[in-house]
Automatic annotation (TrEMBL):
Family per similarity comment: Belongs to the methyltransferase superfamily. PrmA family.
CDD domains listed in its UniProt record: AdoMet_MTases (cd02440)
Binding, S-adenosyl-L-methionine: T134, G155, D177, N222
GO terms of molecular function: protein-lysine N-methyltransferase activity
EC number: 2.1.1.-
Protein name, per record: Ribosomal protein L11 methyltransferase
Species name: Luteitalea pratensis
Catalytic reaction list: L-lysyl-[protein] + 3 S-adenosyl-L-methionine = N(6),N(6),N(6)-trimethyl-L-lysyl-[protein] + 3 S-adenosyl-L-homocysteine + 3 H(+)
Keyword Transferase found: yes
GO CC term, one of those recorded: ribosome
Function: Methylates ribosomal protein L11.
Subcellular location: Cytoplasm
Gene, per the UniProt record: prmA_3
Location, primary (coarse class): cytoplasm
UniProt GO BP: methylation
Amino acid sequence: MRARTWPVLRLVFSTPLDDEWHERLLLDVDDCGVSALDEDGDIVSLFFAAASDRDAAVDLLASRGWPSQATLSTEDVADEGWAARSQANLPAIRVGRIVVAPPWDVPAPDAAADLLVIEVEPSTGFGTGHHQTTRLCLRALQDLDLRGARVLDIGTGSGVLAVAAVRLGAAEALGIDNDPDAIESAEDTLRRNGLEAGAAVRMELRGLDDRALLASDVVCANLTGALLRQQGGRVQALLVPGGRAVLSGFTEDEARWVRDAFDACDVEATHEEEFWVAYVLRRRAATSQA
C-alpha cells in the first residue's frame, strides 16, 4: 500500500480496567469509527482513517467522561507496516468449511481437499477471521443457500465475506467500502485467490448512500452497532423482498437496538460468540422500504 500516516488517539490508564469498564470502553470506541484498535497493557491506541474522525472521537469520548479515567493524547504515526507486524503471527482460522489463512499459513492442498480456503493478507481492515464478528458472518453465510444469489457486502474491508459468498455458490458479489485502503486490500484478496475483479466478484469504492446500488438477495453488513442503527432503513432498501441480511459488528447490549432499526425484517437466526452477535434477517415480502 502507498505510504501514509495514521491519526492516532491514545488512552493511557493509571490502573487496569476491570471487565465492566473494559466493555464500556469497547462500546464507546464502537461509536468512534476506528480503523483499528491496539491494546498494550494500560495503553489503548485507536487508529483512524482521517484526522477529522480522530478529533470527533476525542470529543465523543470526552463527552462520555473518559478523561477522568485516562490521559488522552493524539499523534500521527507513520505507516511502517504496523498492521502487518501486529498480525505477523496470526495462524489460519477455520469456520465450518471455510479456512481464512494469511500467506504464511495457507494449508497444503492435500490437507484442504474438502475446505474452502481464502488467503488474506492481514491489514487494517477486519477480515482475517480472527475477529469474532467476521467468524460469525462466515458461519451465517454457510447456513444460507447462496446458489445463484446476488450478494452485497457493505464495508467489505479485506473482501473476505464477498469472496466467501462466491465460493459458497453466489452468482455475483459486490464488496463496497468508502476507504480507499480497504478497497486496495480487498482487490489484493481477489488476486491472491485467483479471482478477477469485474467477473463474479467486484470491489468498488462506494458509499452506502450510492443510489446506483442494486437490491440484492443477500446483504452482508459487518459494521458497528451505531452504523447499523443509523442505516437500518437504507440497508433494508438494498434487500429484495424475501432477501436476507447478515448483520454483525454489535454486542449483545446493542442487539435490541439493531433489531429495532430493521423493522421490515424478521429474525431468522442469531449467532453469538463471547459478547458479539450476528443476526440473519429476512425482509418481509409485503413490506416496502423507502
